[in-house]
Structures are given as structure tokens and as C-alpha cells.
Amino acid sequence: MSKNEGFKVSRRDDGNLTIVYPQGFLDAHTAPDFETELQKAIEGGRVQIIVNCRDLDYISSAGLGVFMGCIEQVRDLGGDIKISNLVPKVYHVFELLGFHQLYDLTPTEEEAAGKFTA
Amino acid sequence: MKTFFRAHPKLFIAGGAGLIVFLALFRFAFMRDVRPMPLSRDDISEVALDFAAAEGWTSPNRVVQTVPVEGDDYETVRRLAEAAGTPPPDRRTLPDPGWETAIFTNPGSLRTSLMQRRQPDPILSIATTPEGRVVQYVEASSPIAGTTTISRPTATRTPPFPELNTNDLFGVDSDNRTNLSEQDQQRALEIARAFFDRHAIQCDGNPTSTLARSTSDRVRLVYFTWDREGPFGSTERTRAIIWGDRLAAYDFDLVDPLRREEPSSFDWVGTSLDLVPVLGILAGITIVGVLLVVRRRQGELDLRSPALLFAGIFLGSVASIIMMLGTFAAMFGNSAGTIAVWLGFLNIAITSPIGIFLVSFVVAGAWAVGESQAYLVWPQQNLRPFSAWMRGDFRTREALEPVTAGYLSAFAALGAVTLLGLVSPRASQPSIASLFGFNSWPSMVAPITSGIVTGITLTVVSGILAMTYARLRTRRIWVLLVVGTIAMLSVRAAFSLTQFFPASSGIAPIVYVGLIVGLVILFVRSGPLASTTAVFVYMVFVSAYPVVLTMNPRHVAMGSWALAASFGFFGLAIYGTMRPRRDGGADAMPSHVRRAIDRLRITQEFDVARGVQAQLLPSAAPNSPGLDVAGLCVPANEVGGDYFDYFDLKDGRLGIAVGDVSGKGVGAAIYMTLTKSYMVTQTRQAADPARVLSRVNDHLRRNLARGTFVTMAYAIVDGKSRQIAYARAGHNPPLLIRADGDGDFLSAPGVTLGAVASGTLDGILRVESVEARPGDLLLLYTDGVTEAMDVRGDEYGDDRLIAFARNIARTSATAADVVNALLRDVRTFAGRAQQHDDITLVAVRFR
Predict the structure, then answer these.
(1) Fold classification of A7-117 (topology level)
(2) What are the CA-CA distances from residue B727 to residues B767, B798, B815 (Å)?
(3) B191 phi, psi to nearest 5 deg
(4) Does ipTM come in above 0.95?
(5) Span A72-89, pLDDT tens digits
(6) Would the pTM count as exceeding 0.80?
(7) Which one, B132, B242, B436, B545, has least CB within 10 Å?
(8) CB A102 to CB B836 under 8 A?
(9) Domains of chain B by range and CATH?
(10) Smallest Cβ distance to A98: which of B660, B706, B730?
């Protein structure tokens, strides 16, 4: 816990795609920040979202809940959230919960973008 | 006031009567033999300086210290008169009234007493009677105990005497005697006579004894003694020591010729009483020290915990305050204008802000502790005055009544002590010097500062805190009385009793204990503010009033200031009690108390919730044929989102579920309850683990908040056939370890409950079956185990878990042994790190 309690999230729009970059620790305290960022994109009508997790060090169940809730919402709107660049430790958590069978997890941001255009 | 009077009529009468008795009779009880004091401290300084100047000593400063010295001349005469069967004389008629003030000149070099020990400087001791008659003069060369700056006189000579004790000084060692020629004796006598003439000292005739002696460095000393008849068969003895060409020591005394020197009696009672708190404190320090070491070794002590932090800060503050007080004492005790004083200012400039800073930390800590405990455990009544003062309601009845009660109790105590003095034949000690009780003559601030420092610091810190702690622990008054009495013994000296009742009289211990017990009773009845006030008032009156009674105009003015200030506060307290600005204080609960009570209520609610939730988890292992099962759940907070359950199924099979609701706290706990109810229903209706989980998912999807999910492992175990059928809904994979230590995680595919519609879930979730053999170990757990972190943030992890399981599977450990050992292993790994997630474990051992 003491390793990195900070969390930051940034966002970049590229054509129809919106790429969100969470950084640091995504837990019960920081999940609302992450959710707000995703909701802003969705409310702005942007439903093709890639979450690039290259700098995400830790995710708790609350953080996973944000993915779960938003992906369902975006899919209802005809879009999707693809998740890329998961570090092994975080990927393991997604895998444990079975989320790799529900959501598109890709090694790179480009591959995630490719899934949208495909 | 009327209501207060009606509530405490006895206290009012006792206090009023006590004050009258004290003011009217104190003089007759304790100061029968005390004469008016003709000279003040400054006057005596002048006398001493003139005397020193006539002997060739000059000093840029005035006086380093004036010390009241209790002479025993009056005691000598009184004893002789009693032996002769005559009434003791009025001490005012004696040539030496029996008390002296020693004065040390300080020409002001900045040298500490420690340096002095290595290379002594010359110092001068002059003792006078209150009229200014010099009765002792010693040129010496040793440090004076208790002073930090010692002199280097401008006269260039090193006096011969290493100490100032005149008894030792004049007690000649016969081995060193040398011969003295007639001529040398005459010369020495002339030096002595010249000294007597210079200072108009009456000493005629030839010396009754003459003695010569050489010092270790072969300087000759000549001792003269003149004995004359004194009153009541005593001897007036004048002694002088001539050193080289000058007189280096002179002393005047009344001596009882028949009396042999007796060793002074040891105050056993007083020393024992003083020793009790000291031993208590030492024992406390020892116990705390041992506990610190033991707890540290057990890894149960967090060195950064607030309690320890505050303890450290408190000790630091006390040290800093003591340092500040010491600096103040040095400033006022020494003469102004020296480098020492400037260094003192510098010291204060540095230490004061640090001290205030630290003290504010202590106040913050006390505030936090007080909020969390004291207000809730203590009787509200005791704390209301503090509450009122904290919110600025000074003129309220609740704030001022304890002050009034404190004053009245102190007056009653003063009256009682005075009455005891009147009836006790040995009460009156004829020494005004000791009545002052200070190391210097009274100044305006002395009684007040002494009262504050001694009364407040000692009483509040040691006594009231000890009682407060006892009060937090128990409501038994007798425990409080014992603790309070022991604690208050440490302030025994603060009662200034030693000078009133000598230890030999036997009354002193009774008075100590009486006052202390009275103070503790006052604490119990009226709270800490009243008892603090009582000690303060007692101190001020017992210190300042004798000063007024000395009749010296300067001293009367000084003592009156302290009394007037104290009476002024009393008047304000009475006025405020009579006409409070507002009377609603008792009902107006301060916001911090309200907050504290709210917090307590929430804590209690959580305790209830914890109990309810614990109720929902199995309290005993199921009795299933062929299976040894044990489980436990340790929530990280009051309530948690972890879940485990056993279900007795058809054909003697056992259903075991372990689940984890996402998130933490109350929300997770409520969903956990919901999950349990679905599981209880569905395990009855469906036999297939995946089917059960799918149906539970249906319900959860409808009822969980968005973004909330539940992971679950559900296994159906047949103890007879040893078949395990399990499904895993995004939960940590169970472990099946064979009796020989082989085995691995059971990772059937699945996804968390609540994440997707059951249609999707059914496509992913698969039931897997494995066959166990006797001695095999099945372990279900939540991520609180694998994600337990140590202080560095490293996780316990799958590897440690499987290593642990493989080791223990090879032993004959029961299921209960396994869960307990695993919990211990995880906790050992985490060390001092806080548990941040619930830990749940279920172990099954096949028979």
C-alpha cells in the first residue's frame, strides 16, 4: 500500500477513439476519479474507448467494478471499452475474476484500436 | 450562590471558619517567637557588601544568593532554660535570635560548578542576623551547591578553606598542630583585633584557647576562641582563624557547654512517605520498559503509534519546561549584566518556542484522548467546568462552583492546620527563615510562582493524572483513594508542612495524610478543577501569609500582593457563581463532546453489526462423514464482505461456499447478507454447482449496485466417495493438495457473479470434478490471504500459499490446525502491516 498511493488519470481523443490512461493505484479511494473520467467521455458521446493500463500498478475490486459498470453501459450504447497494456500483476487479477473472457484485453493500444476498426 | 450555599452549607461554614482561624491565629500557632524583621534582602546585601569592601573584596555585582540559614542558638537557650526549670526566654531578648542569612558575593566569572570542582575560585560567605549584625564571615574556595555561576574576586588571593561548613572549619585536627611562637601569636591576635575594630565587634580580653596548625601546603593557620558567659548558662563563643596576615574566618555562636554533639535525627516517616511515590514511579518505569521490550519482540508494538509519539512529546515538553524554569531561576538568582544572563536570554529564545510547540502537541493529544474516552467514561459533572471554559463560558455556575469549592476547602485545611499548631506543643519552630520555604528571600512573585510550579505541575501532572487514569479504569472509590493518596504523596513537600511540624513530633504524618485524603475526597466530589484550585490556594496562602506577618514593610507589601491576587480570584469566583452570565451551560453540550458521543454511538452500532454478521457465518464445523472441516473469517474492519458457508445436502454430501463481495465496509456487508440468503435458497433447489451459481447470479444482477460483483467458489464434497465437484465464479482457485504434498490450484473457468447476464455466465462457467484420496487437503480461501501485504507492500501470494499447503498436507494436521496455522503464517508474514482485507479460510481434510 505504501508503495504508491497516488493515482492519476489522463485522457486523449484520437478521431472516434478515446484513450484513457490510468496511473498508479486504483482502489476504493481512487475509483471515483477513474469513473468520473470515463463518464465524462461517455456523456460526451464517445463510446469507443481504450483504457491503456501501462502505468496501472494495482487494481482492487472497486476498480474492477468501474470497468464492469462502464463497459456494460458503453456496450448498451453500441460501443465498447477495450483494455490494453495490462502489466502482468493486474492482468492476473482480471484473469482471476474471469474478465478476460468478457472483455477485450489486448497487449497494445494499437491492437485495441484495430479491434474497433475491424 | 444561594443554591451553591444550600448545596454545600458545611463546606461554606468550614471554609469561612477556617479562613478566620488561619488569618487570626496562624501567628500564635507558628510564629509566636518571630520578631518583626527589620531589614530586607536588599538592605542585608548592602551590609554584606560594606563588610566585604572593608576586608578588601570588591565585586562588580551585588549578591549571588541569599540563603536562609536556620541557626540553633535559640534552641540551645531554650533547652538550657528547660533543664534549669525556668520558662524559656522571649527570643527577642537574645543577642542572636537564631537565624541568619548567608550571602555569597559573586564577582561574576562564567564558570560552572563542574569546572569549579577542578579549579576552585574564591568565594565569600557572610551571614548576618535580620538586624544586619554579621555573625559569620568565611573566605573560602569551593563551589556553592546549587549555584551555576561562581565568582572570581578581584582580590588576588586564594582562601584556605575548601568548604563553608563552620563546624568543620573550626573543628581542628590535632595531628596537624604546630608550634607557635609568642611573637607570632601576638601578631595573629593583632590581626584579629583589627578585624573586630573595623566591624565594631565586641570581643575583649585574651582568647580562651589558641591553636596553630599548618595546612597541607605549609601555610600556618591560627585558631582563636573567646568564650564568655551567655544567657541561661550558655556560652557566647567567638571564633576566628588567622591565615597569614589576614583574618579568613569569623564566627559567633551561643553554645550549650554541657551538650554533646548528637547526630541529627533522621526523618524516617517523611523519607518513607517521599519514597513511596518514587518507588511507584520506578516500578512503573520498569514495568513499562519490560512491556516495551516484550511487545516489541512479539512484533505487536508499532513504534510510530500515537500513544508512544505523545509519550515522547510529553517527556520532551516536560524537559523543555524544566530547562526554561531553570534558566529563569538562573536569570533572577544571579546578578544582571553578565554574559550568563545574555546566554540565558538566548536559551529562552530558543527553548520557549520549542517548548510551546511541544506543549501544543501534548494539548492536542490530550484533547484527542479526552474526546475519545474521558468525556464518555467520566461523570459529565466533573468535566463540565473544563467544557465550559473551553467554549469560553467563564462566568457560568458550572465553571466557577468548583473554583469556589476549591478555595473553601483550602481555607478549611488552613484553619485545621492552624488549630493543630495551636494545640501541638512542638508545632512552633522558631525560625522565620524556614517559614519562607524558599531558597531566597521573598519577592513578590516567589509565592505565586512557587505555587504555580509546585502546586500545578506536581499536583496536576502526577496526582490528578494518576487519579484520572484510575477513574477511567474503575468506579470504585476506594481504588481511587489508594491511587490518589499514593500519587499525592509526591506533592507532600508542596504542602510546606515540614517547617510547621517537625518530623519528631509525630503530628507531621497525620497532617500529611489528612490533607492528602481530603484532597482526594475533594477530587471525587468536585472534580479536578476544584482539587487543583485547592492546592494552589493552600500553597499561596501558606507561603505568602507568614511573609506578611514578618512586619517588615517591604515584605508585607510583597506578601500582600500574592494574597490580594488570590483573594481577588476568590471574589471573582463568588461573584460569577452568584451572578452567572448564563445558566444554560449545564445543558449546552460542547460540540466536541457531541462529536465524541456520536462517534461512540456509531462504534456501538458497528459492534452490533459485527455481532449480527458473525451470527450469519457458521459457528461450528459441519459433522460430515469422512470429512474433517474447519473454517474461519477475520474481517479487516468492523464488518466485512467475505462469506463462507456449509450446506448439508442429500446423500450426506456437503456444500462449501467461499465468497467475496467487491468493496469493503457496510455496503459489502449488506450484499454479503443478500448473497447468503440466495445461496441458502439455491443450494436446496439445485444439485449442480454451476447451476447454483448461475441462479444466484440472476438474483444478484437484479439487486447489486452497478459496479458491484461477488466472487464465489462453490464445491460439493462427498465424504464417502471422496468426489469433489466445484465451480469457480471469478474466485481465487481452491487448492487440492495430496497427502504426499503433491497437488495444485483448481482453476475451472468462470466469471464473477453480478458481472454478466446468466446466459453469458452459463457459457463460461464450467463444473470440474476431481477425486480426492484419504489424507488429501482441500483449501478454499479469499484474496485476503494471497493479497496480505507486509510493511514493504509485498504480497503473501500464491507461491507462499501453495508452499504452506504442501508442507502442512504432509503432516497429520487437522483441518482446524490448518486454518489456524495458515492464519498465523499470514500474520507473521504481514508483521506490523495493517490487515487491509478480510481473511476467510475453509480447510477440508479427507479421512
Answers:
(1) Transcription Regulator spoIIAA (3.30.750)
(2) 5, 19, 22
(3) -60, -45
(4) no
(5) 899 999 999 999 999 999
(6) no
(7) B132
(8) no
(9) 1-30+397-581 (no CATH), 41-255 (no CATH), 619-846 (3.60.40.10)
(10) B730
